[in-house]
Amino acid sequence: MAPLISIKNLYFSYGEQLVLENINLEVNRGDFLAILGPNGSGKTTLIKLILGLLKPQKGEIRLFGQPSATFKERWRIGYVPQRAIARVDPVFPVSVAEVVSFGLLPKKSFPRFMKASDWEAVREALRQVEMEAYGRRKLSQLSGGQQQRVFIARAIVAQPEVLILDEPTTGVDVTTQERFYDLLGLLNQKGLTIIIVTHDIGIVNKHVKQVACLNRRLVYHGTHEEFCSSPRLKEYVGEHHLVIHRH
Ligand SMILES: Nc1ncnc2c1ncn2[C@@H]1O[C@H](COP(=O)(O)OP(=O)(O)OP(=O)(O)O)[C@@H](O)[C@H]1O
Ligand SMILES: [Mg+2]
């Protein structure tokens, strides 16, 4: 079976600045990949390239075996963008259910009516993130951790096969983070392929199966176990003074 995401010899620059250099990476069905790297190492840029929001200058990205440039079924990849919580407008009176329903738009053709089955899908997505009781609440009235769950519901409501999260736990307390990773672990067990992007090595917890370290180039890619016993990890922890959660 073709990998869900295949990246070959990828280069990307913003103007003169080379941000990604010769990236080669495969993501297979069932993977739970953490992409680690310091601020400015190109993580968000790589995600935007995968999503087709940016075009590579050189190299190839294939999604579900098809060239990214002509790939149409964007809903097959769910996305929780960086700083989604910080962008919540405290005045805009959008409800939780409405926010989640926006995740169905890529799957719809015009006219984009919401059918009864669509609202059922919204309820189901909220149930999966244990937020079904909050559908009518205003998004701005939820806590950061609750909002984060709503953004996951929005990203999974169209039943994607891959979920990509860019720094989803920034500003969320440790207990909420643990519950959050348990939720991702559960979704992964049910068959969802997950890519989580962060500069926080604390994210490499018991649910993560593969680790990739990015710093303009892909400096490491291997299994979680290899990573935990590799000198690369010790360097990384040493440089960043961070603590790792082993299983
Ligand atoms: N739209 C843009 N135009 C020009 N340069 C950009 C743009 N977006 C990002 N950059 C630069 O590209 C580099 C990589 O940025 P990117 O956002 O991919 O990093 P990141 O690894 O996601 O960082 P962080 O951990 O801070 O989110 C940085 O040097 C950044 O300044
Ligand atoms: Mg980023």
Automatic annotation (TrEMBL):
Pfam families: ABC_tran. Transmembrane segments: none annotated. Residues 5-240 form the ABC transporter domain. CDD domains: ABC_Metallic_Cations. Keywords: ATP-binding, Nucleotide-binding, Transport. InterPro entries: AAA+_ATPase (IPR003593), ABC_transporter-like_ATP-bd (IPR003439), ABC_transporter-like_CS (IPR017871), Metal_Ion_Import_ABC (IPR050153), P-loop_NTPase (IPR027417). Belongs to the ABC transporter superfamily. This is Metal ABC transporter ATP-binding protein. It comes from Thermodesulfatator atlanticus.
